[in-house]
Write a structure and sequence with these properties.
The chain has 209 residues and is of the alpha/beta class. The protein has one domain: Uracil-DNA glycosylase-like domain (Uracil-DNA Glycosylase, subunit E), CATH 3.40.470.10. The chain contains eight helices and eight strands. Strands 1-3-2-6-8-7 form a six-stranded mixed sheet. It has a two-stranded antiparallel ribbon with strand order 4-5. Helix 7 runs antiparallel to helix 8. The protein starts with 10 loop residues before the first helix and ends with a helix. Bound molecules: iron/sulfur cluster. Iron/sulfur cluster binds next to helix 4.
């Protein structure tokens, strides 16, 4: 069941408050928070793991090369980015210092950081009221669907996600790009599956309640 009440008057108010959030240590390493984007009336919500280095600079989820790949997959599935809602489990980039280069590089978030950010995702779900969720990549799917979820086995199969919403786990498009460098047939098939999964999610999201 979807949440019904919010302490905020609007989704924009949620976004503004999220921009000031210091609820976890990730706030110290961000350029800015990366709140969800797209259509606030979307029936389909895609949820990735966290912002990339590019996203941290642009303030937009799935910008840069990863976003280009996702846009291509969405287009091939008959979807446009501006008709879905795209967001992440955590809104601030997770980084660590590379001692050799002296530069910040991405790292996986800690469990506590994902937990600290969960209320913002809840607010997005409350305000957008999606019919269908799509978890992008295994780590995001395991947070939304449980640790037992295995993308290799359960990708493309409907699961029950947060608030009882039908949820699909899909492969991260950037994974397929890397796979293509050493196993082109697998990458091609993986891409076909990805587009089919997105199409399946779109069709279900288009069905009235
Ligand atoms: S990751 Fe989430 S909880 Fe942590 S500071 Fe950023 S917005 Fe707040």
């Amino acid at each position: 069941m979807l949440p019904l009440f919010s302490d905020y008057p609007s989704l924009d108010a949620v976004r503004a408050e999220c921009g000031r959030c210091v609820a976890c240590t990730l706030s110290a390493g961000r350029t800015q928070t990366v709140f969800g984007a797209g259509s606030a009336q979307a029936h389909l919500m895609l949820i990735g793991h966290g912002p990339s280095l590019t996203d941290d600079q642009t303030g937009l989820p799935y910008s840069g090369p990863a976003g280009d790949l996702l846009d291509t997959a969405l287009t091939q599935a008959g979807l446009r980015r501006d008709e879905v809602w795209i967001t992440n489990l955590h809104k601030c980039i997770a980084t660590k210092m590379n001692k050799q280069t002296g530069r910040a590089e991405q790292r996986p978030p800690h469990v506590e950081e994902i937990a600290a950010c969960a209320p913002w995702l809840e607010q997005e779900i409350l305000w957008v009221q999606p019919r269908v969720l799509v978890a992008i990549g295994g780590p995001a799917a395991q947070v939304l669907l449980g640790k037992e979820f295995q993308l290799t086995v359960q990708r493309g199969r409907w699961q029950t996600g947060p608030h009882g919403l039908p949820t699909l786990g899909i492969v991260q498009p950037t994974y397929l790009k890397r796979l293509n460098e050493h196993d082109r047939p697998a990458a091609v098939q993986g891409w076909r599956d990805l587009v089919a999964d997105l199409r399946r999610a779109a069709e279900r999201a288009a069905q009235p309640d």
